[in-house]
Each structure stands twice: as C-alpha cells, then as structure tokens.
Sequence to fold (221 residues):
Amino acid sequence: MVHRALAIALLLLASSTAEAADDTVQGERVYRDFCQKCHGLYGRGDGPAVEYFAAKPPDLTDPAVLGSRSTDEIVSALLARGKNPQSAHSLMASIASLAKKDDLHDAVAYMKTLSVPGGHVSLLAGHDIYTSICWVCHGLDGKGDGPAAAGLKVKPRDFTSKDFSMAGRGEEIYRTISEGAAKSFHGSESMIAWKGSLTPQQIRDVMAYIGTLKSPVATKP
Fold:
C-alpha cells in the first residue's frame, strides 16, 4: 500500500509553498503528538477535543487559512498572540511551547501541505479513501489492475493513461463516483454508487487524489 510519506510527497508537489520533505515527515509526527486532537487527522478542525471549545479550530485544508506566509512568520505570529491569555490562540501557543522549536517549525511545514492551492480538498484524505476502497478495482497505482479487475467485463479506468484527463470533467467524474454506472465516463455498470458511503467532501477529496496518479511519485517504489 502507498506509504503515508509518499502521500506527503504528492502534497509537496501540489503545494506552491512546499517545504523540505524531511521537515514535513518529522512535522507529521509532531502534528500527531501535539495538534491532531484539536485540528483533526486531516487538519479540518474536527479533532476529538473540539467538543470542549467554544469555537472550532480553523480548517487547515482551506488554502486561505495559512495563505502564502512563511513558516517562520506563522510560528512567530502564533507565539506572539499566545502571550495574551484572552487570545483564542493562547491554548495553542501553550501547547506549542511544549515542543522543541525545530519541531514546531516542522509541524507548521507539515500543516502547509494539508491544503491544495486553488481548492478546498485534502489529498491525504483522498489517499486514504482511495487505498481503502478504490484500489481493489483500479489498483494501487491507478492503472486499472486491482485484484477485482480480472472478474469485471470491462477493465476499470486507468487513471495513469495519457487518454485519461480530468480537465473540465469535474461534474461528470463526481457524478460517476456518487451515482455509479455513468457510462459517459466509466463505460461499465460495475462502477458502484458511493453516495451512501462517501460524503460529498470525501468524493471531492478522492477526486483530487486521483488527479495526482499520473505523477511519477504516485508509483510504488
């Protein structure tokens, strides 16, 4: 199965503000230890601790949240606001103070990979959905060669093929995943309707991930 570090590599290629890969790998560890309980697995501000907050943490998959600021700027602003005990950021700053300075910078570098420029989707969420359900037919690398493909009358779509493009087909592809059996795209009634299992956001997430499968880093090492 595609490793988490490889999914982060995809994020780095997609991000216009990419940090060093080694920093984000360590940053993911720091994020899980210090940030995930509030900000959630994918940074959407839906961690298990949010039920105790009056205001939900910001959604880090929204590119506007961190914007184009550098990691240093974000860390400095966070700690500066945290000096005010009435600040909404004071708790976060207190938690951040428990981490080493380098670890804090790595965590912010990782947070910056959680958003995709121009979209409000999570490639990591899409990766996890794809490698949980889609790969069975479409294959881990998206080549249409999953273990269930041999039993289908029509080969599943090869997402890495030069003939496959998502450009201008967002609505059509969304409908295919949601409703299933959309012959205009898939060409096979074997495509299952996922609208009862996946939320609209999850469908958009997996679409975003599928869009990365033509990248060389999406192939197995």
About this structure: The domain at 4-111 is CATH 1.10.760 (Cytochrome Bc1 Complex; Chain D, domain 2). Residues 21-39 form the longest helix (19 residues). The chain is about 45% helix and 0% strand. The chain has two domains: 4-111, 123-218.
